[in-house]
Predict the 3D structure of the following.
Amino acid sequence: MQERRRKELTGIRITALDDRGRGRGAYHGPDGRERPIAVTGALPGDLVDVQVRRRKAGTILAEPLRIVKTDHPRRTPFCRHFGDCGGCTVQDLEYRDQLALKEGIVRAAFTPPELASAIRDGGIQPILEAPREQFYRNKLEYSFGAQRWLTEEEVRQGGEIADRRGLGFHAPGRFDRVLNISECYLQPEPSGSVRAFLRELSMRENLDFYDAREHRGLLRLLIVRTALTGESMVTIMFGENRTERIELVMTALTEQFSGVTSLNYVVNTSRNDSIFPHEVVSYRGPAFITERCGPNLLRIRPKAFYQTNPEQAVRLYHAALAPEDVHDAIGGDAPDGEIVVGGDAPLSDRLSSEESASGRTLAFDLYCGIGSITLLLARAFSRVVGIETVEEAVQAARENADLNGLENAEFHQGEVETLLPSLVERYGEPDLVVVDPPRAGLHPGARAALRQLAPARIVYVSCNPRTQATDIRDLVDRYRITRMQPVDMFPQTRHVENVVHLERR
């Protein structure tokens, strides 16, 4: 191994993964010192030449320039935009290697001794693979950009590019450049057709795209949602309130896509792309689409958060909610993780009164969102209580409870760390607490409140095993980890969901 240039290192052998999914190895410098190195995109068994990006806390952070030797042969990506888009970061790996990578991320997060010693033998389960590698997402956001990102190939070819507008995804690390895409394998139709139609319409009618530097331009964001029920939603965000132009776009979409269930738009003249502070105008159809989650129906509105892989979401919830909790509610023990999605199999709406009286009386669902987990618990527990910070999500959760006739589910708006003690005083101590916080993990106050409550069982669902492990480290003196289930919700990416079952010692 040698240092060829100041920022290029050769012959780095990758021996492990860290909890961010980076390949870890060591660089032996000319001074004889060994320095740890983390290489994004490298796997254990790889021998790589790398480009150094920076150094942090004594670790060299790098990206692979070339793979000299590997135990994990790369495949030809199926999307022409791979490498430029930045979305599907591991599409060049065979799916089995993607799963091994994600399982390794979870295991790395729980290697600290205090965590590893709390895991019962056999507690970490093999990762639950997704039912499909492509077209699994139920939501995509496409950005309109006045100045699109030029690929390396376009730069090499040179020549003048007459139309610099882009409709697709922001180039990695660039808020002001959008990669114009012609295909995407993440979401089923009508996603691609709507995107292509708006691109063609904009060229025909000379519609300007949003300029993130100048903060002007008509077309700003396209949000497409789909559901297992076959319903779909299209929401357009406009950067300027130009009535005639808005009406032109919405009329054209109405005429071209009569099968779209819900058509909406938002006018956002602020500097933030977020839809949440702005009024959503329902242009045609209902202001929601209906999704199936096991035996339950959920109304999904333009601002709602719901798991973006709806088929795998049911499997995730099956892993999160133990059979004794929701056996009848979501189909019981399904072999090899197979679950009937959509509730077509005969399911009891509730457990029998004898089962309900067996001790499963009260459950709390913290960070409950629109109530997807809460309403599954409502089919097994006498009473369930959901806590959520976003008022619109709480309203949606209540609406979904009414939609499914579940009168034993109650929802409260506020911060978990503030509400939890008062709700325990009001309802009593829960038999089960489910937590599914944002990527940043539990608020320190919420963690302290949960520790003080110390329920018999906690189920922690997370899209970030690293912050999940940090939170659980504060609980393992009182809890044992009885089961850990990684779940692949996002094929072609490094993201992994993880479910941890905690039982009080």
Remarks:
- The chain is about 25% helix and 30% strand.
- The two ends are 50 Å apart (CA to CA).
- Confidence is low (pLDDT under 50) at residues 1-5, 332-358.
- The longest strand covers residues 59-69.
